[in-house]
Amino acid sequence: MKSKVAGIVFLVGSLYYLLAEAISATFFNASIFNTYIFHTISELGIPNGNSPLFWLMNSAFILVGLTLIFGSFYNFKDYIIKNKIVFYIFSLITGLGVIIVGLIHGGNPLTSGYHTLGAVMAILGGNIMLVLVSRSMDEFGRFQKATLLLGIIGLVAFWAMFFNMGNAYMPVLERLSVYTLIIWSFLTGVYLLRN
Hints:
Layout: H1 2-26, H2 32-38, H3 54-74, H4 84-103, H5 112-134, H6 142-162, H7 170-194
């Protein structure tokens, strides 16, 4: 029963995020193509005229953070055989980071540092967590291999983004490094429901 509850939470959190971003991007002050290619995810959460549905995007950040913390500590931890303490730490870092991003928006010089800290906690911490999870379970099957691949892709995309902050296509790298965590949440939901 616990696996089913956690699985549904992971599925709902990941799907809500994708839907909320798509709707927020649709109403952003740019074409949906330009929004996804040239505007960061954080811009969708800034309360200004460019993003009238900023509250929807921020609710998605907060929900994903809560999803990761609840799902990990309520049930997924039972599948972690090695490195449990490190897993707990990175689950908290990742979940709290995403929540910070949702609560403290970018674009404000007084708070942008906290927003950036939350983003690094979420993206870097999250993709490190994926690599850790893939090597901490009792087997190395399809789910673990997919988790490892997502973590590596996310880390490579994060570092490419970090060294190309001024590049016009930086938002693509940002999304790639974030979507690995969202895809993993969806796969984890399916994995838990099947178990």
